[in-house]
Amino acid sequence: MNAVSGSSRMGRGAATVGALLLAIILACLHGIRLALFAVLATFEPLVRAVLCFACLACFGMSAFYKLVAPPSVHFPHLIILSMGAGAAVTVVFYEMIVRALRPRSR
Question: Which among 16, 35, 57, 74 has most CB atoms closer than 10 A?
Answer without folding.
Answer: 57
